[in-house]
Design a protein that fits this description.
Ig-like_fold; 25% helix; Malto-oligosyltrehalose trehalohydrolase; GH13_cat_dom; 605 residues; alpha/beta; 4-alpha-D-(1->4)-alpha-D-glucanotrehalose trehalohydrolase activity
């Protein structure tokens, strides 16, 4: 088997070392070997004359699946492979060979594209108490029955300990072992595809976690040319950046190719500092489109971006980056302020006139599209060309891992809103022009919080994270003792879903409402119409109602605590396709009478 590694900083050579247990040993039996237990001799690697900085070695007897190995640079400690496909003992342990052809896929999969999708964000570690791919796979059938089309997994790269959000991952080609490792992810994807569900994976290219990151020992993976909230930036444009970009590109394509994923969600692309003429994101979108053609199934990229820049999803041929979609936090912020009345921080501008903000995001995508942002202290964003941009390129949502977990107590909307207002939120998400996305448990108004949790074995780092979390929220007026300790196992346990709620009220009624709305979205072509310019909105900020028209359908929500009468544009009659509360028969006068904290989907009579 050919082993290779990019290590331009090695001066005295690189040695390939294997575990003392021998090549091909059964390494699934704990405990795994420590890097110090490797053979002292090892196999010296040769510089590759055709690729500066690369070292290679042929090890014919080491091709067996699960063979443990690592690299020693300049006589130093044995380190895991930067391109490791498996880390059986965690980020600091030896790497393991993975035979990608060993898994026999059960389900032929033609792929499932983004247009018409309903996404469901899912965290493997808390979707079930077990916190594994296999346990999660066993719970996918209700999502398919609900009408979900894709599950979007939060990051699954290895990170220290057992439990965490995944955004402190390292080993960007590998899969977190406590979840089930690479084989477990393949079984999950196979199970999802068998139910007709596509699978999207959240990947993090803008930083690596603070523990278990050995990349700087190998080469200039990071640069002080730019700085990010996490320190030195990933090197996308300084010397050595060609190989760093190739490392990230190869990782992204490997997820799509080897695990048969349908798409990737790219975390915080605004934090990818890149001054090159051809940006990394353009390279990535080009490579993904080429892979899509090669494997003959649709593949897509969804960006999380704070820039409010439509060029993120504009095709490359028209000067854009060519990503296929992006999250739209502006829609979330407008909806959140309309529902809750919160006005702190970045909610302030939206809270001045929440329904006007919501109307703007339903028709023009971004609230800040060149307008002044008081949170940033400057103008922000750029307008979307509504006549030439399909609506499915923007994701709309009422809740996400960020917007719940980054709150002091990790409280969901269900902690403070009535079932009627939760139903209104669902209606606006699932009938709006954007591609809808739900956060796990939202569909039944889960009462469990989703809190920030970590599991760092390093006691110094663990204490720093716990104190930092409490200090952060104490600065905003929270009592330190009320902030959940990220390192306390109970914090993760509180965040696990309780499925017994699904059959009790008011959860069961809300779950049925989500199913009814998703069925309408799939069954009514007007609700998947990509024409943003065709959406017409009317609202009354004082009376707290809003209605919009999509083709022959009208959607109405009443966020107030009193019944309202809503004059519908054009007058005439209508028929009710779905309503949260029982509605009186239409009077034929073009006026919709809607109960307090209620919503309805109507069609022209």
């Amino acid at each position: 088997m050919q082993f290779e590694v990019w290590a331009p900083q090695a001066r005295d050579g690189v040695v390939l070392k294997f575990a003392d247990t021998g090549a091909g040993a059964d390494t699934d039996t704990p405990p795994g070997p420590d890097p110090a237990d490797t053979s002292p001799a090892g196999l010296p690697m040769r510089p590759d004359p055709g690729r500066p900085g690369w070292w290679t070695a042929e090890a014919p007897g080491a091709a067996a699946d699960s063979t443990r190995y690592g690299f020693a640079l300049d006589g130093g400690p044995v380190l895991p492979d930067p391109r490791s496909r498996r880390q059986p003992d965690g980020p600091d342990g030896l790497s393991a060979v993975v035979d990608q052809d060993a898994y026999e896929w059960r389900v032929p999969w033609p792929g499932r594209g983004l247009p018409g999708a309903v996404l469901y964000e899912l965290h493997i570690g808390t979707f079930t108490r077990e916190g594994t791919f296999d346990a999660a796979a066993a719970r996918l059938a209700p999502l398919a029955e609900l009408g979900i089309t894709h599950v979007e997994l939060m990051p699954v790269c290895p990170f220290p300990g057992t439990h965490g959000w995944g955004y402190e991952g390292v080993s960007l080609w590998a899969v977190h072992e406590p979840y089930g490792g690479p084989a477990g992810l393949k079984r999950f994807v196979d199970a999802a595809h068998a139910l007709g569900l596509g699978v999207v994976l959240d990947v993090v290219h803008n930083h690596l976690g603070p523990a278990g990151n050995h990349l700087p020992r190998f080469g200039p993976y990071f640069t002080d040319t730019h700085h990010t909230p996490w320190g030195a930036a990933v090197n996308l444009d300084a010397p050595g950046s060609d190989e760093v970009r190739a490392y990230l590109l190869g990782s992204a394509l490997a997820w799509l190719r080897d695990f048969r994923l349908d798409g990737l969600r790219l975390d915080a692309v605004h934090a990818l500092a890149d001054d090159r003429a051809l940006t990394f994101l353009e390279e990535l979108s080009t490579a993904v489109d080429e892979l899509s053609g090669a494997v003959r199934r649709p593949l897509f990229l969804i960006a999380e971006s704070d820039l409010n820049d439509p060029r993120t999803t504009t095709p490359r041929a028209r000067g854009g980056l060519g990503l296929h979609a992006q999250w739209n936090d502006d829609f979330h912020h407008a909806l959140h302020t309309a529902l809750t009345g919160e006005s702190q921080g970045y909610y302030a501008d939206f809270a001045r006139d929440p329904l006007a903000a919501l109307a703007k995001t339903l028709t023009r995508v971004f609230f800040h599209d060149g307008t002044y942002s008081s949170f940033r202290g400057r103008s922000h964003g750029r307008p979307v060309d509504r006549t030439d941009t399909p609506a499915h390129r923007f994701l709309g949502y009422a809740q996400t891992h960020d917007q719940i977990g980054n709150r002091a107590l990790g409280d969901r909307l269900s902690a403070t809103l009535s079932p009627g207002l939760l139903a209104c939120a669902a209606t606006l998400v699932l009938t709006g022009p954007h591609t809808p996305m739900l956060f796990m448990g939202e569909e039944w108004g889960a009462s469990t919080p989703w809190q920030f949790f970590t599991d760092h074995p390093d006691p110094v780092l663990a204490e720093a994270i716990s104190k930092g979390r409490r200090r952060e929220f104490a600065a905003h007026g929270w009592a330190a003792e009320s902030i959940p300790d990220p390192q306390d196992p109970a914090t993760r346990d509180r965040s696990c879903l309780d499925r017994s709620e699904r059959v009790t009220e008011p959860h069961a009624r809300l779950l049925a409402w989500y199913g009814e709305l998703i069925a309408l979205r799939h069954g009514q072509p007007d609700l998947s119409d990509p024409d943003l310019a065709a959406v017409r909105v009317a609202y009354d900020g004082a009376a707290r109602w809003l209605t919009y028209r999509r083709g022959e359908l009208r959607v109405a929500v009443n966020l107030s605590g009193e019944p309202v009468e809503i004059p519908l544009d054009g007058g005439g009659g209508f028929r009710v396709l779905a309503s949260w509360d029982r509605m009186p028969e239409p009077a034929g006068d073009g006026v919709l009478r809607l109960a307090a904290e209620s919503c309805a989907v109507l069609a022209d009579a």
